[in-house]
Design brief:
Layout lengths: L2 H14 L4 E3 L6 E5 L6 E5 L10 E7 L8 H16 L7 H29 L7 E2 L3 E3 L2 E9 L3 H14 L1 H4 L3 E9 L5 E6 L6 H11 L5 E8 L8 H16 L14 E2 L1
Antiparallel strand pairs: 1-2, 2-3, 3-4, 5-7, 5-11, 6-7, 7-10, 8-9, 8-10
Helix pairs in contact: 2-3, 6-7
Length: 264
């Protein structure tokens, strides 16, 4: 840990409270940021050369209590966007980040939540999910589903619809998501959410990049079986995601050519 980061952590915790920024157990260089203005907490990774390069927002750590559906995802995005505007190479940035969030997070979340409710009401039909094969390992179960998307807002709508209409999915241990979108104007959008399974969303997004997939999203659901899988969990998550893409005809695979599409 750099001296700058050590000093910054001490300063932030002195100003906003002792547990505002605390290390994530067993994960080097990963810290949990508890937002003073909100119950949502986010995971930050600090590269070894911080503050010359910015910290990375890995995802939400805890959605908090009393939050509305989609609120945690929006807060994560707000933190990421604010970090992009406040970071300056060579300068620590967390104080500026938190001060910006103090001014904007409550009003932004309220406005986005109302917007999300309106968007969700516009979904009259369920998303055209294509389901993967069910993968089981040591009592943990993995299932992926993919669907075509044209905008990030549509991808978020699909996730909200899934969590609102499928109680089993909503109660799962993790719902890891990723999407890649390219507009007719060649504007590119790509994002992911680990949903508590550290680095999983980024690996799924990387898989999509390697497969050169566009205008599609995927959600990989994991129900934890009580036995730690170690690195094997990433193989299973990616295998489920890839199988969904194959079944959805986003990529050709001779080994899966005989499998029928499973819609839900």
């Amino acid at each position: 840990m750099s001296e700058e980061l050590t000093n910054e952590i001490e300063a932030i915790n002195s100003i906003y409270g002792d547990s505002t920024l605390e290390p994530s157990e067993g994960e080097p260089d990963v810290y949990i940021l508890h937002l003073p203005t909100h119950t949502v907490s986010v995971r930050l990774h600090f590269p070894s050369d911080y503050p010359n390069v910015p910290p990375q927002v890995l995802g939400t750590q805890d959605s908090g209590t009393g939050t509305r559906r989609g609120e945690a995802t929006h807060v994560k995005q707000l933190v990421q966007d604010t970090l992009g505007t406040t970071f300056r190479p060579g300068e620590v940035c967390l104080f500026d980040l938190l001060e910006e969030l103090r001014a904007f997070v409550d009003s932004a979340v309220e406005g986005q939540s109302e917007h999300d409710v309106g968007e969700e009401e516009d979904i009259t039909e369920k998303p055209p999910w294509i389901l993967s094969e069910v993968f089981t390992e040591k009592k943990s179960v993995f299932l992926a589903r993919c669907a075509p998307v044209e905008t990030p807002a549509q991808a978020r709508q699909y996730i909200q619809h899934l969590l609102a209409t499928d109680k089993k999915v909503a109660k799962a241990t993790h719902n890891i998501s990723a999407w890649r979108i390219k507009t007719t104007s060649d504007i590119i959008y790509q994002d992911f959410d680990d949903d508590g399974e550290t680095a999983a969303g980024g690996r799924v997004l990387h898989l999509m990049q390697l497969m050169d997939l566009w205008n599609v999203m995927v959600v990989v659901t994991r129900w934890y079986g009580g036995i730690h899988l170690g690195p094997d969990r990433f193989r299973l998550i990616n295998s489920a995601a890839r199988d969904a893409f194959v079944r959805g005809d986003y990529v050709k695979d001779q080994t899966s050519s005989g499998k029928k599409k499973a819609r839900k």
